[in-house]
Write a structure and sequence with these properties.
This protein is mainly alpha-helical. Helices cover about 60% and strands about 5% of the residues. The protein has 11 helices and 4 strands, in the order H-E-H-H-E-H-H-E-H-H-H-E-H-H-H. Strands 1-2 form a two-stranded antiparallel sheet. It is globular, with a radius of gyration of 18 Å. The two termini are about 30 Å apart.
């Protein structure tokens, strides 16, 4: 999510894309030491649809790639468990109510306090819902948005079993 925030800061005109000038700003904010030619080459590499702008998804796909299909399937399972009324969307409150932050692996290992995990979760959730303000229903997250919510989290776990274990614990799927 911090990468998304940094992208949004570089997006000076707020159109959801970065042009070459904004991309140079993004590189500077990220404190990456590339020369002009390297920046131009990176821009071309990230601009998949060759429209002279880099959309956030193009940017993030180039950096972390797509979520493996096995994980997408698991995320869909979690989503449909959370969508108790089968409306096709889950609200902020449903996500807050369903999140077992005290069972997060970092809490269980003593790396982070439960309140810290919950605060991080709420911060990411709040930010993600703000991004949904351009969607048809900004008060609910559909399955695609839920998968996108987990895009950066998925990247942290190199092992799919570990990723699935985290989902199982924090969403109470083992109950």
């Amino acid at each position: 999510m911090s990468l998304r925030r940094t992208f949004d800061i570089a997006d000076s005109n707020g159109d959801g894309n970065v042009d070459m000038k904004e991309f140079k700003k993004l590189i500077k904010i990220l404190k990456l030491n590339f020369n002009k030619e390297e920046i131009e080459n990176l821009f071309i590499e990230f601009d998949d649809n060759e429209n002279g702008k880099i959309e956030y998804n193009e940017f993030i796909d180039s950096i972390i790639g797509n979520i493996p299909e096995e994980r997408v399937s698991r995320l869909k399972q979690v989503f449909f468990v959370l969508d108790k009324n089968n409306s096709g969307g889950i609200s902020v409150d449903e996500m807050k109510d369903g999140f077992y932050y005290k069972r997060h692996p970092d809490v269980l290992k003593g790396k982070k306090a439960p309140e810290e995990i919950y605060a991080e979760f709420l911060d990411n959730l709040d930010y993600h819902f703000k991004l949904l303000n351009n969607s048809a229903n900004p008060n609910e997250m559909n399955v695609d948005c839920f998968i996108d919510f987990y895009r950066n989290i998925s990247f942290v776990y190199s092992n799919t079993d570990d990723f699935n274990d985290v989902l199982k614990l924090v969403w109470g799927l083992d109950k």
